[in-house]
Structure formats: structure tokens, C-alpha cells
Amino acid sequence: MSVKKPLSNLLINSRGIFPLSLLFMVFAMHAIAIPAVKRKKTVVDTMIVIEVTPAGKGQPYTEVTFRRSARRYKLQAKANPNYVKLLKESADKHTPVLIERAKIESDEILSVKRVTKK
To answer: Is the CB of residue 102 less than 8 Å from the CB of residue 42?
Structure first.
């Protein structure tokens, strides 16, 4: 017996349409299912600001120096203005802020948040 004959009977037979359509629906739903988006892991540090050097003409970054690190970190000039405000407030009042960076080696600041007391 040929393989084509049972396959064509399955595709044409009215009893074979339901299981076939159900199988198609399962594969279609699986194909269009939105995969869970994994958030990139970032590094968050709590640090106190010593100095905020504003971006000059032609400079794309505001430079920030922290008490705990000898490095100068960079905050994009087009970043949220509240970030610069929080950094300056931290420098004036010597209060800690949460600094988010992409990697431990990175010197670019992604976000700045106020430390909340629990």
C-alpha cells in the first residue's frame, strides 16, 4: 500500500479534518506565542557623589565622581534631568543614591534613583 493513499485519505476525509486542524492550531499558537523577555542584568550600586561636572559644549557626557570609587563615571547629557538633580543633591547633602550601570566594568550610568529607607 502506498503512503500517499492514507495521507490523502486523512487530508480529504471529514473525520481527519478536526484532528488535523487542531494540530495546526497548536503549532500556530506555539509559533506566535510571545516569548518571555529576559531583562538584561544590570549592576546597581549605592554611592555618595563627590562632584558633578556638567557637560560642556560638544561633550556628550556629564562626569560624576563618587566617594567610593576613583573612576569618573559618565551620564549622557540627554539623560533624564532628574538624574542630574539627584546627583547634585547627593553631592550637596552627602546622601547616597542608587546608580545603575550595564556591567561592573562600565563607567556609563544608566539610571539614578533615590535610596528609599525600609
So the answer is: yes
- The residues pairing with 96 across neighbouring beta strands, listed in sequence order, are 48
CB 51 within 8 A of CB 71: no
- 49 and 64 in contact (C-beta within 8 Å)? yes
Question: What pLDDT score does 47 carry?
Answer: 92
Q: Quick one: how far is CA 1 from the chain centroid?
A: 58
Q: Specify the DSSP class assigned to residue 94.
A: T
Residue 57 burial (C-beta neighbours within 10 Å; 0-12, 13-18, 19+): exposed
Residues of the chain with pLDDT below 50 are none
73 with 109: CB under 8 angstroms?
yes
The Cα–Cα gap between 31 and 24 comes to 10
